[in-house]
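ping. complex inputs:
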Amino acid sequence: MSKILEEVLAANHTYATKFGDKAHLPMPPGRHFAILTCMDARLDPAKYAGLAEGDAHVIRNAGGRATDDAIRSLVISYKLLGTCEWFIIHHTDCGMETFTNKIMNNLLSSSLKTAALEASGWRDIGPGPGSSEGKYINWLTINNQAESVIEDIQRIRYHPLVPAYIPIYGYIYDVKSGKLIQVPGATEVGKAS
Amino acid sequence: MSKILEEVLAANHTYATKFGDKAHLPMPPGRHFAILTCMDARLDPAKYAGLAEGDAHVIRNAGGRATDDAIRSLVISYKLLGTCEWFIIHHTDCGMETFTNKIMNNLLSSSLKTAALEASGWRDIGPGPGSSEGKYINWLTINNQAESVIEDIQRIRYHPLVPAYIPIYGYIYDVKSGKLIQVPGATEVGKAS
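pong. complex structure:
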């Protein structure tokens, strides 16, 4: 068993022993909202937004982007589980700002090792051929966080399955301070009158 | 300002005042792993798996499914940010077990109100026409959690951009106990020899 797997299961054991009355939480989010944010390891939405178990849906992907999958999740979130306010939260120093589709596809074409593995030779996994499959994926890189938040709110706002009465708040999480910074103009995007 | 927005910003203010040395966390996950899990409000992966800020990537969508978007995120996670172990964690009592594509599309065709709003008349948002756009979305509902975990591991395992050396662990989180339960056979799916 890997060290990480052992640690995760040990942490889970500790969590479960103090689980208490969380066993009785209902399925629909108690505070009726959802957050779409980045997968970045430095972000803990429960901590930075004050969520307890049972409070809110949390959707996360690389960048916190309004992908088809995020929209699938948000539509399920409101239609079946009653959320009626949404937050789109990108963050400073995001990995998505550090590359382009072309860079990513070139890296993957040359090897499927991680960049770190390539540099360190940490594990002998052979030369590992690359793959040109990257070109079938839009990596959804980000040039400017404020613009990407507004773009993503816009995409969600105008989706035919998203009702106009749901407010969508746009914020950037600052990884240096832990603060949520409002994106100017974001919450006004396509707002229902 | 909505009550929820006020509460989130107040919680964030408290979090930021005690941010401490988290300002210095590097971008790559310190513990080199990623978790793909469901957006369900009852799940807090940081708590159930023992994550501190900076430890691991967390990807979440409705069901914790291995969508194209989840795979986009996982590939970025290993290739650019060095994760080398992945967890796929679905859970008991998942909303995705409660409907079918047909049911969802019928609901959306009749109205874009939430089911709860329809029942309670909580806010007068007018009759709100439905939309037939649902039929362009595969909602990725779940019949059986153990099967969906194995299916999703399989989809990731055989993706041409996923290297064979990354172990993928399959678990089901039990919302009644907080425990992670191993899915029999899941970690063996397509495992590199």
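Helices of chain B lie at 3-17, 45-48, 68-79, 101-110, 115-120, 145-157.
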